[in-house]
Design brief:
With 351 residues, this protein is an alpha/beta fold. The protein has helices at 2-36, 57-65, 85-92, 106-119, 170-183, 200-205, 210-219, 238-247, 273-286, 305-308, 321-335, and strands at residues 72-75, 96-98, 125-130, 254-259, 295-299, 346-350. It has one domain (48-168, 192-350): SGNH hydrolase (Rossmann fold). 40% of the residues lie in helices and 8% in strands. Strand 1 (72-75), helix 3 (85-92) and strand 2 (96-98) form a beta-alpha-beta unit.
Length: 351
């Protein structure tokens, strides 16, 4: 009798031990997540020099956007990530942070701008990269290209400081492990970037190789705008949201928008409906000047010596360092009203 009655008791003890062990493991893991603080969002974590994680720009960049030492910002997708804040600082005599990240949708970019605006009284200069995600005639998905495993961290973008603790999930645990490795200098090949700069070309392909780059340029299929049915009146529903976000900025803010260059093979052919979409999109972005002060639009997205040169690109959409440097020079001179015409860019609007 005593032997048979001990079996249920032993199972109960096993289940209790298992539950306590799992709970203890979860507490330990979450404690390490809070201490390592992979997204620099926990107020009581140690003040370490953290590495913005290469796969988590949408997670880490809000912490950069909130830092008071910055007064000017770059926002966009990976086609804006190569703009170096150090060069921008020197030319504009301002303190820049680059908040661009891979595959950010229009919704995510505006959310990033909202974070900047809510933490800075007056933004001196805003540089905003425009590429295909903004010029989709029927609009872009809310989370373009983010991938099925990436969830937009709404909790990092709202005005509630009490919900900025990372959730206990596999994403936070993995990013905490990556951040821990970077903090101790283990398997981290890029330096701390407090201004948000990240060399996306190096991340994607390593050291530039002209032969491999040319192979990518001519073997990949270009992704253009509005494939399929031709729309007589493209809506571009994301552009009104961009205009509203820019209208919420101070009149003193220098608002510099640029159409990022793609390799000429990845631009729509003249006479196609994709080319018509691009022209319409450019015209609508340019027309923002009717309600905006201190507004500039510079176009690099057209067939030019810059976009025809294969060695200017690592793939169809990502330009190399020297092109990024040229773009920064142009943005500065145009915004100061002293740009000299060249075949590589067009000034669509100067206020």
């Amino acid at each position: 009798m005593s032997i048979s009655s001990s079996k249920p008791l032993s199972w109960r003890i096993f289940v209790i031990y298992l539950a306590v062990s799992l709970l203890g493991s979860a507490v330990l893991v979450y404690g390490l997540v809070l201490i390592v603080d992979p997204y620099d969002s926990v107020a009581f974590s140690p003040d370490w020099e953290r590495h913005p994680l290469q796969s988590s720009g949408r997670y880490y960049n809000p912490s950069i956007a909130k830092r008071k030492e910055f007064e000017s910002f770059v926002i966009g997708t990976s086609t804006s990530m190569m703009l170096r804040p150090a060069q921008l600082d020197r030319l504009f005599d301002e303190r820049f942070a680059n908040l661009a990240a891979k595959s950010l949708s229009p919704f995510e970019q505006i959310k990033m701008l909202d974070v900047v605006r809510s933490h800075h009284g007056v933004i001196k200069t805003l540089i905003f990269g425009i590429d295909t995600v903004w010029c989709q005639p029927s609009g872009s998905d809310q989370f373009v290209g983010a991938g099925a495993t990436v969830v937009f961290p709404t909790w990092l973008y709202d005005d509630n400081p009490w919900n900025d603790l990372p959730p206990l999930n596999s994403t936070s645990a993995q990013d905490a492990w990556r951040q821990f490795r970077s903090l101790i200098g283990w398997r981290m090949r890029y330096p701390v970037r407090p201004d948000g700069f990240f060399d996306v070309v190096d991340d994607l392909y390593g050291l530039y190789d002209a032969e491999q780059s040319r192979l990518r340029l001519y073997s990949q299929t270009p992704i253009l705008l509005g494939r399929g049915t031709r729309l007589e009146d493209p809506v571009f529903p994301d552009l009104p949201d961009l205009l509203e976000a820019l209208q919420n900025l101070s009149q003193e803010t220098s608002k510099i928008l640029f159409f990022a260059p793609y390799h000429h093979r990845y631009q729509p052919a003249s006479g196609t409906h994709e080319a018509q979409y691009w022209t319409t999109c450019k015209n609508r972005v340019t027309a923002f000047h009717t309600t905006l002060e201190n507004y500039h639009v510079i176009d690099f997205f057209f067939a030019s010596p810059l976009t025809r040169a294969d060695d200017n690109f690592a793939d169809g959409y990502h330009y190399v360092t020297r092109v990024a440097s040229e773009i920064v020079d142009v943005l500065h001179t145009v915004s100061r009203g002293s740009a000299a015409p060249t075949p590589n860019y067009r000034i669509l609007n100067v206020e």
